[in-house]
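Open question from group meeting: does this chain pack into something compact, or does most of it stay loose? Before anyone orders reagents, we agreed to write out a predicted structure and look at it together. Recording both the input and the output here so the notebook holds the full record.
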Amino acid sequence: MAALVSVACVSDKTTVDFRSDRKTIEVGANGGVEKINISSSDEWVASVGLQQEGENEGEPNPWITVSPANGRGSVACEFIIDSALTTKPRTAVVSILNVKTNKTQRITVNQKGYDYTVEVDKSEANIKRYAEYDERYFDVTVRSNFDFDVKIPDSEKHWLSYESYRLDLNRGARPREVKVRFNWKINNQAKERLADIKFVPKSNIAVAYSDILSVKQEAAEPIIPDTRAGDSLSLLNIATTMQCWTIWDSSTPMDTWNGVTLWEERMEGCKPEWVGRVKSVEIFLCNSFEGLPYEIQYLTAADEIYIFSNENSMLKSINLGEDILKLQNLKRLTVGAFGLTELPKNFKFENLEYLDLGSNNFQRVPEEINPTNLPKLRALVMNAQQRHAVSDLSNTIHDMETLGGLIGEEKFPERLITWGLDTLVLSVNYLHGELPTFEDYPDKWSEAEVMAADTLPMELVGTPKIMPTTKTFRINGNRLTGEAPKWLLMHPALDWWVPFSLVFPQEGRDADGVKAGFTNAPSNLVDYYTKWYPKKKLASSIEEEIPEEEGGVITK
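Structure tokens returned:
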């Protein structure tokens, strides 16, 4: 029996060779967990060798953790390897020390560095041809370990753009994620739009892999030009694009639509090919953030377009856009309270007679408004261009550079006065300074002209002949100062201009703090004007028709 016990004891103390089942570990940049089997009869301790290269040379390698880090006997250890920090590979040696025998098992860990890559969470983005303004975008998540530029083909930048983004590379070469927002515009063409977007490095590096984002936008329903059906579809698309409060019912005939007038044979100026097409259209109450929609160009038979009241127009800065310039049959155009600050550079209309841009946000009268571009223009309305109502321009919290009200005009726009328009309306703006005297103006009232008209006084001879055919002239509510010039005070049509309501009254103070108003404005029309025009029946009834609460002055 004793012999048997002895054999059993020897069996319990069988020695195990001290070794590990692997000598090397190869791991990718993302790191991970690798298992190593340690065979031992004795106690052992694992330690990670010091770093060999770089700015942290001689310090412990924090990117490898052994668990358990010590033990007795055979154990399965986990080597927990952190993700890489750079694009360079790195190596560390883990030593397993047999405490009793001082023998060591060395395990080499080789980790690859990160490749430079870009990955996008979607390879395709399919978008509709139309959406409301604040819904025309899509987001993509980009994962990269280098700072990149978004490259949209030049040919597609007119409809596709992206907002600024910031990739925070706070983990060295480890890829990080950033959301990039792309904005798109309505597709009015009867063909799909396609754009392949690339993500390219800002620095000169070799990229191992880079995703491409393919964007596809659906096509629009084709519009047949110069047809009644084309006009109908254009109006529906315009109303939708501008987010009008009321959109016409496509199930009813176009000649029943509110604000739409169609050409009829009996109408003056109607051409046979225009019968049944849109002659004029009125569009009210919209919420547009852009110029007039693309489809406006198909209303080629229209001679009048009236657009008024864009939501929060005082906050917007819109360019009218070039598509309307194709409507060369237009005679009357109104785009009011829309938020306009610019006109297209080639703003030209051969037949336009009436232009109303009232209640917009122009800083100055656009250069494009001139006799060359608008040879037949007879009436110009640019009143109430103020974004904000400011009484004292010398003491305001608003930015003068974006105040509107034609405040950017260094002096009164003389070119509008000498144009020879029948109607010029510039009321309720921030025009400042003095009215021009035109003392050197070459055209003056002659004695022959005065003698030929029995109501004109001889005192008019030699006075600048300014706006002799103008029937309506309104400049009230500006910040004009100084003396009213002689050509204005003695103008033959002054009484028809309703001067004490629509010419002389000015408001507040100018940018220098000077109180606005003409220092020599007469106190009333009868006592002053009849002295010069004793044979003329004054048009005082015009002023009597304007209620006093609206700024009218009762002249007896």
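Observations to bring back to the group:
The chain has eight helices and 30 strands.
Residues 1-12, 541-556 have pLDDT under 50 and may be disordered.
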